[in-house]
Amino acid sequence: MPIIEAHSLSKHFKRFRRRPGLVGAVKDLWHRTYEVVRAVDGIDLSVERGEIIGYIGPNGAGKSTTIKMLTGILVPTAGSLAVQGLVPHKDRYRHVRTIGVVFGQRTQLWWDIAVIEAFNLLQKIYEIPRDEYRQRLKKFNQVLGLEDLLNIPVRKLSLGQRMRCDLAASLLHNPAILFLDEPTIGLDVAVKASIRDFIRETNRQQGTTVILTTHDLSDIEELCSRVIMIDAGKLIYDGGLRELKERVDIPRRLLVETIFPINASKMMLLLKDYRLGITALDPYRWELSFSKGRVNLPQLMQLLLDTLEVRDLELEEPAIEEIVRQIYDRGAPGDAR
Ligand SMILES: Nc1ncnc2c1ncn2[C@@H]1O[C@H](COP(=O)(O)OP(=O)(O)OP(=O)(O)O)[C@@H](O)[C@H]1O
Ligand SMILES: [Mg+2]
Fold first, then answer.
1. What is d(CA 26, CA 35) in angstroms, rounded to the nearest whole number?
2. Residue 42: per-residue pLDDT
3. In a domain, 177, yes or no
4. What is the pLDDT of residue 20?
């Protein structure tokens, strides 16, 4: 049974529309007009236990709104939703005991008390057995390097320090599902790496299901095997990261560097049987671009190695940023699943 299941899930907001000028303001007093924002507009989701899902989309796509419905903070306008068999906003008390939530934009911890006191409070709230709590805290301290932070009030932590504490806090009660809304926003490379490692380890060791929204596509590349993409409230892709890359035809590039200079006509002649874009970067360096599946790559590389004095060969796969940009720009690459 899926751990998260949603059918035609929607959240529409009514937004008060202000009319301009004094006349408009007076008119607004008598008759208010509203516009409806379809933040989430009829999405189907099915997530299995133990998956790490990358939930992506442009600004305002509806990602945070979805997370808020899944965590029980917002009540859906329409559709059905079950998380571990519970309806999040109806069974809030039972629901929150089985989930962990981190919103990268703001902390879930108490601003004025020391980190360790916040953790201790969470232990009481979630009724975490003492031994379990001690063990987990010890492990989190090690993996996330919290030791020096525990006695500092939350408000005095830097962003990266706070994020590590927030992440630890969200996992103290060993939830089955972890919701992370932009957990790596604004963090430096080292902290990002430690947070990713921690998420990966938790998933592996505890079987924690993870739903992760991010604009940092290297988060996705490193953690997620499945990507769900939303745009203007609608799902536009749901599937594997590799399939996503394959569905979008962005050329791959082979960079060839030679020991001796090569002139263009020689290169053209050599490669005339291949469907390639050929660009000279300089007489020693050439860029060959081609669509995946159109060119027999081992054969091409063999030919280059046999006929030219090759110093270096480098294959560039399209970056996920490029793929996602193309999809955002022109809509879905085929039907969503
Ligand atoms: N409480 C609210 N009242 C009215 N409109 C809202 C409310 N919350 C969100 N919206 C609107 O719903 C849409 C989706 O917002 P949401 O925060 O879910 O986007 P997002 O995908 O998380 O974007 P971002 O990448 O910028 O975080 C936006 O147009 C936003 O303005
Ligand atoms: Mg958001």
1. 19
2. 97
3. yes
4. 87
Q: In the chain, what percentage of residues exceed pLDDT 70?
A: 98
Interval between CA 236 and ligand 1 midpoint (Å): 17
Whether residue 161 sits in one domain with residue 71 = yes
User: Which one of 14, 37, 213, 219 would you pick to mutate in the ligand 1 pocket, going by the greatest count of ligand atoms within 8 A of its CB?
Assistant: 37
pLDDT (tens digit per residue) in 112-143: 999 999 999 999 999 999 999 999 999 999 98
Strand-strand pairing, 226-231 and 52-56: parallel
Predicted local confidence at residue 117, as pLDDT = 95
Using the mean position of ligand 1's atoms as its centre, give its distance from the Cα of residue 75 in Å: 14
Residues 197 and 225 in one domain: yes
Strands 277-282 and 285-290: antiparallel
Same domain for 208 and 306? no
The tens digit of pLDDT for each residue in 162-190 reads 999 999 999 999 999 999 999 998 888 88
Specify if 322 maps to a domain: no
Kindly state if the Cβ of 65 falls inside 6 Å of ligand 1. Answer: yes
Number of compact structural domains in the chain: 2
Q: In terms of domains, do 81 and 13 share one?
A: yes
Q: List pLDDT tens digits, range 272-331.
A: 999 899 999 999 999 999 987 788 999 999 999 999 999 999 988 777 777 777 777 765
